Amino acid sequence: xxxxxxxxxxxxxxxxxxSDEDIxxxxxxxxxxxxxxxxxxxxxxxxxxxxxxxxxxKLNRLTKNNHQGVVANISPISFYEIETLVExxxxxxxxxxxxxxxxxxxxxxxGAIIRTAECTGVDGIIIQKKGAAPVTADTIKTSxxxxxxxxxxxxxxxxxxxxxxxxxGISVIVATEKTNTTIYDVSFKEACAIVMGAxxxxxxxxxxxAADHSAKLPLLGEIESLNVxxxxxxxxxxxxxxxxx
Length: 245
Fold this sequence. Notes:
The protein has helices at 10-18, 35-47, 56-62, 82-92, 107-119, 137-142, 158-167, 205-210, 228-244, and strands at residues 5-8, 23-29, 51-54, 70-74, 97-102, 124-128, 152-155, 171-175, 192-197, 213-215. By secondary structure, it is an alpha/beta fold. It has two domains: 5-74, CATH 3.30.1330.30; 82-244, 3-Layer(aba) Sandwich (Alpha/beta knot). It has a six-stranded parallel beta sheet, sandwiched between helices. It has a four-stranded mixed beta sheet with strand order 1-4-2-3.
């Protein structure tokens, strides 16, 4: 696998999108005008690629090259289509374990979660195309290389993944404080997917509603929540514990 690649320039970014490169995010200079930028913006919207409009100073920090107002980050890994990922996993494992990350935004949390996922035998990680943390050099480093070992897929919305997994016979368990059920009252022994939410707002209400089960961690101190990567590790190791019994 190649390390993270940057593409700079409007035409180069258009070519990358049309070539189906795995683009994590595109940074566009605020106020940029012209036919080419309109063409790029149309392609980015059509493909659902995360886009940030930033001052030129930000672009200058991202690259020393002549960026022409556009810098695109190309993922160092290739993402699966969810259908392909689920089919491949089910063909090999009768009791799969998937991990869904609902708009997790911090790259280091993402990397730590990927590392724990690899250590606990997670078969696949599913993230959202927009609003999710990109796979950056920091992600790779924090994951200790596990990002190259755990298959990952992108979907338009995490709820789409929930419905697809349920239709494939996989139960979906949401990690949320908005429940009276703890992880010790939920079975992780069957084929399942665990959903972890964003650092600031947790799992989306629509995803919680669509899931089969909700579970929380008992918190005995005064602080009301754990770091998401720590909470995810507890959920995954409870799954390991139950499946080892």
